[in-house]
Amino acid sequence: MSDEPRIVTSDFYDLEALLDDDDRALLHRVRAFMDSQVEPVINEWWTRGKFPMDLIPGLAELGIAGTQYAGYGCPGRSPLTDGMIAMELSRGDPSISTFMGVHGGLAMGSIYLCGSEEQKQRWLPPMARMELIGAFGLTEPDHGSDIARGVTTTARRDGDTWVLDGQKKWIGNASFADLTVVWAKDVETERVLGFVVEKDTPGFTTVDIEDKIALRAVQNALITLEGVRVPEENRLQEAHSFRETANVLRLTRAGVAWSAVGCSRGAYEHALRYAMNRTQFDKPIIEFQMVQDLLVRMLGNITASAAMCARLSQLQGEDRMTDEHASMAKAFCTVRMRETVGWARELMGGNGILLENHVGRFVADAEAIYSYEGTREVNTLIVGRAVTGASAIV
């Protein structure tokens, strides 16, 4: 075996070369931040089930909130750069990637795609600077996959205000967010509308969901809205139906596919380092055929998934990405992620379940990524409808 130092990388096909020098440098800054600032502390926060708020200023300095949105203080970078950043965040820790996806993707995306010019000017610049943190309230206690047909949170017009009543569940960032985008059904027209609810609005309460086994550093909350009064100026002026909500989800679903690749990469790289240093039967286990077989299986999954996501981002940049394109990537990449993190745990043997070795965290977090932004089954049916022309969605 060569004595030359081996570089641990999961970018086997050099997809970073698709970025220009400036975007590649940004990606490397994100990686350095995750390696130096997040990895040393994240296990503690994951165990505690709390978000590391003291990391927010460092994330803000990276300038990556709302990466692909142009203007309003946003970076205005390409969908490919946006996706690779989501991947890099998740490679370091999926909870951090999810936090940024909720804030910069779902919350800022709702305002960017559905807000009036005045609303964009009012909220997006401070959100881009991460002076205001956003959340996104769509899922409800009794409605997840069927939320398009089952929004039960209501909005009632009362003069110049709207009165919101209902509950939202699994809402990341909600317990500390400054702004929460809440989707509710207009009782008069039955159209789904979007509202920006500001922190400390009377009647808006949150309770953190405890005892999660995945994404523990993400503070998901149950939101209760009881007579919450929202001014008309806080209703997203360009959101007229669930179609606009779906436009936001299409973009963020692509980001979740990239996050799945990042989760796979994080587990693979930790497993590879472990194999380089772990000795059994008087030699490093990296020299065993079965260990190399696991590593190549993992790397194959990562490479195939990353290549799919790269093409998806190119389609997005050309304004040609469809729901079925995003759904295919989310379904495929999360299945491959589940395999990959499992093989990383297998390679480590019993040590793979120790949090200090990191892989166990990726194994657990993969379960949440696998399910949110549309389950595999729902995304499969979206693609199936596209390729057959027949809807099998009940």
From TrEMBL:
What family, per the record? Belongs to the acyl-CoA dehydrogenase family.
- Chain ranges of the Acyl-CoA dehydrogenase/oxidase N-terminal domain: 21-131
Task: List the keywords (alphabetical).
Answer: FAD, Flavoprotein, Oxidoreductase
- Residue ranges of the Acyl-CoA dehydrogenase/oxidase C-terminal domain? 247-387
Q: Where is the Acyl-CoA oxidase/dehydrogenase middle domain?
A: 135-227
Kindly give the Pfam families that the UniProt entry links to this protein.
Acyl-CoA_dh_1, Acyl-CoA_dh_M, Acyl-CoA_dh_N
The source's superkingdom equals Bacteria
Requisite cofactors: FAD
**Does the keyword section mention Zinc?**
no
What organism does this protein naturally occur in?
Blastococcus jejuensis
Give the protein name, as stated in the record. Answer: Acyl-CoA dehydrogenase family protein
